[in-house]
Amino acid sequence: xxxxxxxxxxxxxxxxxxxxxxxxxxxxxxxxxxxxxxxxxxxxxxxxxxxxxxxxxxxxxxxxxxxxxxxxxxxxxxxxxxxxxxxxxxxxxxxxxxxxxxxxxxxxxxxxxxxxxxxxxxxxxxxxxxxxxxxxxxxxxxxxxxxxxxxxxxxxxxxxxxxxxxxxxxxxxxxxxxxxxxxxxxxxxxxxxxxxxxxxxxxxxxxxxxxxxxxxxxxxxxxxxxxxxxxxxxxxxxxxxxxxxxxxxxxxxxxxxxxxxxxxxxxxxxxxxxxxxxxxxxxxxxxxxxxxxxxxxxxxxxxxxxxxxxxxxxxxxxxxx
Length: 321
Description:
CATH class of the largest domain: Alpha Beta
CATH topology of the largest domain: Dihydrodipicolinate Reductase, domain 2
Number of strands: 14
């Protein structure tokens, strides 16, 4: 049984991570929570029965000596609590993006390597059932030829927002693109545009990987609603995903469709399972217990962050020419 401490009880934590960890009660003790907002603190205490509460995460680390810490908060505030947990020798789960910028991500990576702890980043799309099934099918009939990711919303980008949409939201599909392609980028062509808003809200990237796979990333916050989709193609197989609900498989001129719940063998309403949240948290626990690197550990995610930087830099360089 691992003892877990929680830092932050905001909307994302309460909607996604607290419920998922609670489902692992036979493996994880939810021992303590640290939250500055009194109302949020009351909410998680009432729902999950925390008996130890704190407003100073350092006191929590000292007093309960957790095995793992879930530090789920806005990237603006993440760095110091994350570094404090790592310095205390605690394995850590953090949300995406892993810091307010790539310099902060590298600081977290350096600390994790120095203290020899795992820092898992909540890039859940890698764990989604339809993604796993697509990668399994294409691996059997590879190599990967093409990967695409699309994430659209109607969500205006304010000019005064702390970080860019690419950094704080589209990092999900940049990471998924790189993961599905299975290589590292060697050439990036990218564009950033503003449509109907003050800040950049439309991103397009074409990526060539070192394994000869091609990747296409489309992210649009000036669209008409939320769409999250991807494709993965091998030799004689193409997979078209509506994340997390469905995968349409074209293989040797035959077509079949599976629901995400069918792949994982769970009821259709068990969305946290097949969308990847529960699988992701189970994986984190397994890796801590077995002392092996998580799939989305900061040591790997740093390469996705480098691709985010390349996408932004490609547009900057194009503007200068």
